[in-house]
Amino acid sequence: MAEFEALAMPLFDSLYNFARWLVQNGNDAEDLVQETYLKALRSYASFEPGTNFRAWIFQILKNTFLASCSKLERRVTVAVDSEDDLPPTSVTPESLLIGGSDIDAVRSAIEQLPVIFREVILLCDVEDASYREIAEILSIPIGTVMSRLARARKLVRQSVCLTRSAPRSADVLRPRHTSGNGASPALGQAGFV
Which residues, including other chains, have CB under 8 Å from residue 113's CB and lie 6 or more apart? Predict the structure, then answer.
């Protein structure tokens, strides 16, 4: 029991963050992590010492999530989410690539991803899992990890770019008129700036 605890407890925050992104609800994430720990403890005897415990327990979480998807979709959970319930983010290569973009737009883009893309980008860019670990956790080939990660990042970039290019309400309310030569009118001429 102490050996399991020594391996499992340092992973609690990472498991919760991953679960929170998967189920998109703090209460359900807590339930998912609790069920994951219970299953992992019950089957700890089958864990092979010397292998990747992190990948093993993340795989249990992923399988538990998949098994409970239909149950979670049928349940109606009424909870007030606050900003404090959101998983913390860290500086990652992807966040640097997106650079300076609105964090809400990035979170929204990730939340809108299909689960197969969301889980890969979260494991890689938020949990810093290696491609090999992700492949073990998700039971997919490394090439599939790389392909899904590239597609997920592309979808996030596209979503953030669309969010950035959407007209702001102030731009809609304050039209810019130009003179016949394409230049903005001088103050006092027709239109408002």
Answer: 121, 152, 155, 156
Residues 6+ positions from 122 with CB-CB distance below 8 Å: 17, 18, 21, 22, 110
Architecture per CATH, domain 90-165, reads as Orthogonal Bundle (1.10)
Locus of tokens 């992992």: 40
130 closest CA partner among 102, 115, 149, 155: 149
At 13-66, the pLDDT tens digits run 999 999 988 888 888 999 999 999 999 999 999 998 888 999 999 999 988 888
1-79 and 90-165, same CATH topology:
no
| Residue ranges per structural domain of the chain | 1-79, 90-165
Q: 125-133 contacts: CB < 8 A, separation 24 or more?
A: 125/92, 125/93, 125/94, 125/95, 126/17, 126/18, 126/21, 126/87, 126/89, 126/90, 126/92, 127/14, 127/17, 127/18, 128/90, 128/92, 129/54, 129/55, 129/58, 133/52, 133/54, 133/55, 133/58
